[in-house]
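REVIEWER CHECKLIST
Item 1: Sequence provided? yes
Item 2: Single chain? yes
Item 3: Sequence as submitted:
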Amino acid sequence: MLDERWVFYKNTTPKTVAEGVVRRVLAYGKDLMCVENRFEKGAVGSLHHHPHTQITYVVSGAFAFEIDGEKKVVRAGDTMLKTGGVEHGCVCLEEGVLLDIFSPMREDFVDSM
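Item 4: Structure as written out by the authors:
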């Protein structure tokens, strides 16, 4: 799917990555990647860090996020910037969807598909 111009949702593969969390890798090239994460209420995105810059857009639901030790509740329409190496994670308060944009792409996500 690398550098595919058109990526249709029905052709993407859902992958359970944690209890109550399903990831779909959408369009991506070497320098940019779009990923959807669907969370059930109570599901946890464990604290972690990576060298990629990441922007998260809250499509739906509500999440308690922690970024570099700072905690806030975010809802549909909110966005967060996580620069490379910053520790971050979340707990889903209301079932929802997060859209993540990474630069550069997450090769580890492709390798695990």
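Item 5: Key structural point noted by reviewer: The helical segments are 107-111.
Item 6: Recommendation: ____
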